[in-house]
């Protein structure tokens, strides 16, 4: 615990990792470190995050993964300097605040292994996303608004309950990797075949889908199709 105390006394620190410290709750002094650029709070049995997190205006990277969070505060949307990543995976989140659509500079988000009742709409406002991981969240549908994520290069939807994908997936012209493993898909939009930069389409453990004819077209142009 002495190393935590020493870091609390360093007002100039830009990076703070409290990974796997058994905290139970986030110490109040963390919110006083307004110069922080990276903050790791993963694996601490956290059940809540104070709305004071919105004071950390310089944060570029935030890791809240592997905790017991059922929600995150609206003030997370005030962290408009977040650019590098936001880890929320392996919690108990059923929704995300609409304020997160203000995180328009964010490039990487992981919301996997949560219990979302519906697709969190604020994700589609994160217009700079390059990589989005949303595996194992019980997802039954993907909204047309996912087509707004035009900079996306990697989309991981593994192990959900998707039967269809929206036609707007064709708007993801920068997409390189699309992971659809272990979904009960019955149909795929032909627009996938027109994605000019697609390098990998993963359909392993999809047992409900007849292979679309256009898969041959994808493979012929060099896209790796895993079936």
What is the CATH topology of the largest domain? Answer: Leucine-rich repeat, LRR (right-handed beta-alpha superhelix)
Rg, nearest Å: 19 Å
Q: Summarize the amount of helix as a percent range.
A: under 10%
> Which class do the helix and strand fractions yield?
mainly beta
> Mind describing the biggest β-sheet?
10 strands, parallel
CATH 4th-level superfamily of the largest domain = Ribonuclease Inhibitor
Distance between the termini: 49 Å
Low-confidence stretches: none
- Mean pLDDT reading: 95
Lateral arrangement of strands in the main beta sheet: 1-2-3-4-5-6-7-8-9-10
Number of domains in the coordinates? 2
Per DSSP, what share of the residues sits in E-state strands of 2 or more residues? 5-15%
Order of helices and strands: HEEEEEEEEEHE
Give the strand tally: 10
CATH architecture of the largest domain: Alpha-Beta Horseshoe
| Tally of alpha and pi helices | 2
Shape: elongated
CATH class value of the largest domain: Alpha Beta
Task: Chart the SSEs and their pairings.
Elements: H1 2-8, E1 15-17, E2 38-40, E3 61-63, E4 85-87, E5 108-110, E6 131-133, E7 154-156, E8 177-179, E9 200-202, H2 215-220, E10 224-226
Parallel strand pairs: 1-2, 2-3, 3-4, 4-5, 5-6, 6-7, 7-8, 8-9, 9-10
Task: Provide a concise account of the structure shown.
The chain has helices at about 1-10, 215-220; strands spanning about 15, 40, 60-65, 85, 110, 130-135, 155, 175-180, 200, 225. The chain has about 230 residues and is mainly β.
Descriptive notes:
The protein has 227 residues and is mostly beta strands. It has two domains: 129 residues, Ribonuclease Inhibitor (Leucine-rich repeat, LRR (right-handed beta-alpha superhelix)), CATH 3.80.10; 89 residues, Alpha-Beta Horseshoe (Leucine-rich repeat, LRR (right-handed beta-alpha superhelix)), CATH 3.80.10.10. It contains two helices and ten strands; from the N terminus they run αβββββββββαβ. A ten-stranded parallel sheet has the order 1-2-3-4-5-6-7-8-9-10. Helix 2 links the parallel strand 9 and strand 10. The longest helix has 7 residues. The protein is elongated and about 60 Å long.
